[in-house]
Amino acid sequence: MSIIDKLNKDFESRVRLGIMSVLMVNDWIDFTEMKSLLNITDGNLASHSSALEKSGYIEVKKEFVGKKPRTSYRVTNIGRAAFVSHLNSLEKLIKSK
Question: Domain range for residue 30?
Answer without folding.
Answer: 9-95
